[in-house]
Amino acid sequence: MMIRIFIALVLTLTVSCNTIAREPDRTIVARAGERMLYLDQIPEGLVLKGMNETDSISAVQSFIRQWSRKELLALRAEENLTPEYKAEVNRQLDEMRNNLLIYQYQQQMIIQKLDTLVTDNELQDYYVSNLSTFTLTSNLVKALFIKVPATMPDIEKVKNLYRSSDPADMNALEELCYLYALRYDDYDDAWMPFTQLLLEVPLESANQEQWLERNSAVELKDDQFVYFVAIREYKLRNSVAPFEYIRNQVKTIILNNRRNDFLQKLEDGIYDEAFRNGTLKVY
Question: Do the Cβ atoms of 144 and 185 come closer than 8 Å?
């Protein structure tokens, strides 16, 4: 259907274009001065699945009108700009072209030659050497969170088990929660922001630090549910962030530093080579 629409449209639009110089294997659908819009430049995505023929043609014609208006405006601007403005446009175009070429070349070199393997020792060494830069801006916890219906049978068993860290108790608690709990999240091995946990429970604390220092476990209720929270560990804001929590951040920093060093050496090498072989001459 798309092909038929384009053929019908092209037959309509190209009647007046038969005498225009064109690329032999491409079909012109619009011309603004000497600038051409070819059929293969119209995005296929303009015509969505399920669109009828009228809407499809309308979408393509709308694209052509927008192209035409933009090109005509650019032509008028080119005709009327002062030489000074034209020179500035050309300067900016040259700069943009150079920046784009440099960026693409750098990306190509990074893909081909940059070592992206970061070992555990490198991560640990960087972390230990830069502890003062990894300061927490929020409180962290390792916690157990359970949400059960207020009418849950054997709820007393949950109360007796959730504070424990004994593996047998944890297995019994997990089996119980599997049957009745709406939520059972064990963050015992992963740090999480305390504020994230607070979103799950009806707890309001004006002083999070004070609450964490005074509570290792808490039971909360509302009209429908009972919530159990056991705080296994906590880290307060303004203290050093745990390595496990910022491991990916440390890796990103190392890779960024390595990337910057690589690009600097690449630039220096090109400069030195050009100076040696005479490509660069400074007068």
Answer: yes
Residue with tokens 């009209």: 223
How does DSSP assign 258-272, residue by residue? HHHHHHHHHHHHHHH
Nearest Cα neighbor of 214 from 194, 195, 231 is 231
Q: Residue 199 and residue 202: Cα distance in Å, rounded? A: 8
Average confidence (pLDDT) over 103-132: 96
Single-letter amino acid code for the residue at 270: I
Residue type, 218: V
- The CA–CA distances, whole Å, from 117 to 84, 129, 248, 252 equal 51, 20, 13, 11
Q: Is the pLDDT of residue 22 over 90?
A: no
Q: What is the 3-state secondary structure (H, E, C) of 140-164?
A: EEEEEEEEEECCCCCHHHHHHHCCC
Distance separating alpha carbons of residues 243 and 131, to the nearest angstrom: 10
* pTM given for the model: 0.74
Cα–Cα distances in angstroms (integers) from residue 6 to residues 25, 39, 53, 57, 199, in the given order? 16, 8, 10, 8, 54
CATH code for the domain defined by 136-235: 3.10.50
Residue 223, pLDDT > 70, answer yes
Geometric angle at alpha carbon 263, from 257 and 268, rounded to 5°: 125
Return the DSSP state at 135. Answer: B
Q: Are 28 and 17 in contact (CB under 8 A)?
A: yes
Please report which helix (H) or strand (E) contains residue 172, including its range.
helix 167-180
44-72, pLDDT tens digit by residue?
888 888 888 888 888 888 999 999 999 99
Query: Is 80 exceeded by the pLDDT of residue 224?
Result: yes
User: Which residue type, as a one-letter code, is found at position 122?
Assistant: E
| pLDDT tens digits, one per residue of 121-171 | 999 999 999 999 999 999 999 999 999 999 998 899 999 999 998 999 999
